[in-house]
Fold:
Amino acid sequence: MTEDLRAAREAAGHTQGQAADLLGVARRTWEDWEAGRRQPQPMVLRLYRLLTDQDPEYELQRRT
Structure:
C-alpha cells in the first residue's frame, strides 16, 4: 500500500505535507505510511483518491 499511497500523492501533485493536511493527519504520519514504518487503514488510500478525483469507481458513478 505504501507505493500506491505515494503514487496517488504524486499524481495529485501534492507534497507529503499537503497530502497530510488534506486528510487531517500529521505530516510525520504520512511520511511513516510512505516509508512503511506504519500501515494506514485501508480506507486512507480510498479517501485520498476520492478527495483528489483519482477514484475510478467514483468517476464511473459520476459520469453515469
In short: The chain has one domain: 2-63.
